[in-house]
Amino acid sequence: MKENKNYILPLAILGLMFFSGGFAASVNGILIPILNQSLEVSFAGAYAIIAAMFIPFVLFGYPAGQLIKAIGYKKTIAFSYAIYAVSFLIFVVSAKQESYPLFLTASFLGGIGNTFLQAAINPYITILGPIESAAKRISIIGILNKLAWPISPLFIAAVLGSTLDIKVTQLDVPFYILSGLFLLLGLIALVSPLPEIKATGEDDSNEEESQEVAQYANSKTSILQFPHLVLGSIAIFFYVGVETIALGSVIDYAKTLGLAAAENYSWITPIAMSIGYISGVLLIPKYLSQNTALKICAIVALIGTICVATLPAHLSIYSIGIVALGCSLMWPALWPLAMKDLGKFTKTGSSLLTMGLFGGAILTVLFGWFKDLFGAQNAYWLCLPCFIYIAFYAFKGCKLR
Q1: 380: Cβ–Cβ under 8 A, 6 or more apart, which residues?
Q2: What secondary structure letter does DSSP report for 196?
Q3: Which backbone phi and psi does 370 adopt, to 5 degrees?
Q4: How far is residue 80's CA from residue 66's CA, in Å, rounded to a whole number?
Q5: What is the C-alpha separation between 73 and 67, in angstroms, rounded?
Q6: Nearest one of 16, 8, 266, 326 to 145, comparing CA atoms
Q7: Nearest one of 75, 116, 51, 21 to 350, comparing CA atoms
Q8: What CA–CA distance (Å, rounded) separates 220 from 139?
Q9: At residue 201, does pLDDT exceed 70?
């Protein structure tokens, strides 16, 4: 695909989509301490709220890819927002009835919406322009996604007047508002001028690069025959898990440490990730390749994990920012590295990568379980083997053909 300079409007629209996805996901992080205190749910049970949001990725990742094939990217995005709106209404019922099972159900349904949204917007932004600069485009809109995480507690505070000692029964009004907002976003997506696009080698283009990719992809009969894609989906599994832990646990960790105004610490991770994203925008691909960026970030994340788990507790919470800085360019780099040269398998390949987001379910529950068993600080050791694998993918796995 040749360079297309007309990215401003599509990036603005996709930026709004990325922001809304981050906002919806961060709501689950707010619920962890509320459920733990108000409904006396264990930390493992409270973190299961986040897990419920990620389980649909493995169940609906493939159907999401098939839906994109059938109706296109734009209509799939609109469909995802309709599911989100319904999930927020179920959150209202959950709050009124103080029902933990209903909270899990609402989170699961929101996860279905997130699955279709992620399956559409991530490959779209990846193939919107040259694959070599995909990490730069993802970094631009990734800033909005991560800044949405600390804004959700501010939204709750603005509606309820406080984010401290909230009772479950107080949450109905915020969720009513969110349901209406996400319905509006669905309509915006449906009428937006986003064009339907195809990846290099996915169509019948006569360009030399497109023909080479198509020839390589056509020699395969299954997406499992692309080692860099399969290993990349595993890397995304680990990445999403540890990033969700870093973003979703910081308020809970601050409260566990007894720090005043715990919600203010929610800014640590998105600010750190935004610094990384800005670096990606400025450096990729002119000064830094996507592969090199992934290598650097894996090393930074490993250092940050060790700091979180070993420094005095009142300092270790700031080290979560180092972990988040390491996570920043992993997502922008992993997608283009894993989707390179898939040709006609692009949409199916993106489904496999979307299924990798299931890591957010497994690792967050493990983290909550580790916290119950070993304490809040020691639970962060869980991130270490995950970043070791991502480092392997950066140095070796992404190059396998």
Answers
A1: 245, 305, 308, 309, 316, 320, 323, 367
A2: P
A3: -60, -40
A4: 14
A5: 9
A6: 16
A7: 116
A8: 31
A9: no
Length of the chain counted residue by residue:
401
| Mean pLDDT across 266-282 | 88
Residue 195, SS3 per DSSP:
coil
Whether the predicted pLDDT of 143 surpasses 70: yes
Q: What is the pTM of this model?
A: 0.78
Ramachandran angles phi, psi of 111, nearest 5°: -65, -35
How far apart CA 46 and CA 30 sit, in angstroms, is 10
3-class DSSP assignment, residue 277: helix
Q: Are 35 and 45 in contact (CB under 8 A)?
A: yes
Q: Where are the alpha helices (DSSP H) in 128-207?
A: 134-160, 172-191
Mean pLDDT of 89-111: 90
Output helix, strand, coil percentages for the chain, rounded to the nearest 5.
85, 0, 15
Rounded Cα distance between 351 and 353, Å, is: 5
**For 219-355, where are the alpha helices, taking DSSP H only?**
227-248, 250-256, 268-283, 290-310, 313-327, 330-339, 346-355
* Contact by Cβ (8 Å): 357, 56: no
Measured CA to CA, the distance from residue 326 to residue 296 in angstroms comes to 8
Tokens matching residue 340: 């390179």
Distance from C-alpha of 20 to C-alpha of 17, rounded to nearest angstrom: 5
- Residue 147's identity, in one-letter code, is L
